[in-house]
Amino acid sequence: MKLVAIILTYNEASNVKDCVESLRWADRIVVFDSFSADETVRIATEADAEVIQHPFTNYTSQRNAALEAVGEEWVFFVDADERSSVEQGDEIRRRIADPGFDGYWVPRHNYIFGRLTRHTGWFPDYQLRLLRRARVRYDTTRDVHELVILDGKAGYLDTPLVHFNYRDLPQFIRKQEKYTDFAARDLFKRGVRVKPQNYLLQPFRQFLWRFVTLQGYRDGLHGLWLSLLMAWYEFQMYVRLNREWHRAG
Q1: Structurally, how many domains does the chain consist of?
Q2: pTM for this structure?
Q3: Which of 47, 133, 182, 207 could join 144 via S-S bond, C-beta 3.0 to 4.6 A?
Q4: 36-59 pLDDT, tens per residue?
Q5: Which helix (H) or strand (E) holds 176?
Q6: 86 and 184 share a domain?
Q7: What gap in Å lies between CA 15 and CA 90, rounded to an integer?
Q8: Section 74-83 average pLDDT
């Protein structure tokens, strides 16, 4: 059974080569690029990856377009800031030989601010990324935090991807600003309205969930800081959702 690894990119010149190198075990490597303005395409081409460019609308449409652009039976989605391994490739080869599964959840080791984060919601951080192409699509009602619709049974891999999630605080803020905007627009499209208590209760619940339920306290000050940051962006999501309703009149 043939497997294609797909890397979605936009301005990932600093990451794409190492990501491609980590996927050499795949039958085919496709860099699915959103017309990067940096050297991503050149670097990917020099690394012997196949490059397909497609305009970016949202994360869901980009993944659906990538599925339509390839013909292999199995697809393994990897982000440019993630790294696979030969060991993971060996496990994937064994797993996809099992006809009883049409997808697999993949665990991730997340490095945040240079530290492996074992709690606070970042481990095992399963992502449904290994997919039998003919049995999957992404929910088009979701623009961010894509939802996989799998027509079949999903299993779990043991070998994690390594995810270099956020190098530093400025990068964390840039990404969260983007994700929060997408999330607010998604809620707006679904007709969700802000209630006054959302501004207080939802950030507080986000903090408790990360720091207590997901044992962020075991990550020490690092876990406390991350829990507070995620609570802040939960608050910001409702601020921006309210702004969307005001703009709509």
Answers
A1: 2
A2: 0.86
A3: 182
A4: 999 999 999 999 999 999 999 988
A5: helix 169-189
A6: no
A7: 23
A8: 98
